[in-house]
Amino acid sequence: MSASHDIIDQPLSKVVTECPMVSDFLQVYGLVVNGHSFRETVAQLPVEFWTDFETSAEELTGQFLDLVEGILEVEAVQQIHSLEVLSGQNKRGEQEACSLLIKPGEITCIVGPTGSGKSRLLADIEWLANEDTPTKRKVLLNGVLPDENLKSSFGGKLIAQITQNMNFVLDMDVQSFLLLHAQSRFLENAEEKVAEVIALANELSGEGFQPDTPVTFLSGGQSRALMIADVACIGQAPIVLIDEIENAGVDKRKALELLVSQEKIVLMATHDPLLILQANRRVVIQNGGMHKIITTNEQEKAYYHELFELDRKMQKARNFFRLGNEYFGSF
């Protein structure tokens, strides 16, 4: 679509064809879609129109441009082709041994002992570090340092972070919350997306909830499952940072598969061997620095299936006893 300020001089029929999401706005104000531009249409509106809607030509045009700019921001967010973390220094002030490059559709794990600096790496990415953090790392997007124009063009929707510490404070039910989020992202099929998110969240959490369940009534696992599904289906963030979801009460394997299926860049700090082997690679953190990068090899991929079977049995046993059953030799 053209730059937002040029859009008001283009025929509305062309604008709606290229950007169907503006149709609702035009319909609300009863503006006819034809060969006239938005500017021409507004100039022809009668005095009664401005009285009825209690607005002005300047205000109406401003609202229309805000809508178009929001849509352009959404389109821009979908254009991250790579994320690169250039090496800085470790806690001893020594040069890090490697840099990290991640592309959409890939999972990279961050591994290392507790306190080694895994969360610091996630924070550097979240802040888009430019030698202005203790590690002196640089974070590049699409091969370049993101300037203020690039950051602002994403409108706060560049990076999503999922942690174990998530709580809702809104007095709102699940469906209303998701619908509000979907509409703020200018999604055409908002209600369908909301239904999809709720279904996926119920699948991930294992403990179902209804669309009219207040978000403050959700358990910790249900909350995280809802946020993962929301990030995958409604959220526009192309980069997802995850801090230890292994104990989050969700189906972690399905959660990762869901995020990767949306062609997002996924970086996850974890101690879980199943998640580590599900990833494409892992960066090893030592003394606060990136020590080395290991690509998951064929033997590890085969071993993953063994661990998956063990994990499946553990999940089955966990659900069995959680539901109050007694064991008499078989489940």
TrEMBL record:
Q: Which organism is it from?
A: Mangrovibacterium diazotrophicum
Extract the SUPFAM superfamilies matched here.
P-loop containing nucleoside triphosphate hydrolases
Q: Supply one GO molecular-function term.
A: ATP binding
User: In its UniProt entry, what is this protein called?
Assistant: ABC-type lipoprotein export system ATPase subunit
Q: Which UniProt keywords apply?
A: ATP-binding, Lipoprotein, Nucleotide-binding, Transport
The family assignment reads: Belongs to the ABC transporter superfamily.
Stored PROSITE patterns: ABC_TRANSPORTER_1, ABC_TRANSPORTER_2
Q: Does the keyword RNA-binding apply?
A: no
Q: Which residues form the ABC transporter domain?
A: 80-313
From the record, what ranges are coiled-coil? none
Q: Which PANTHER family match?
A: OSMOPROTECTANT IMPORT ATP-BINDING PROTEIN OSMV
| Alphabetical list of Gene3D superfamilies matching this protein | P-loop containing nucleotide triphosphate hydrolases
Heme among keywords: no
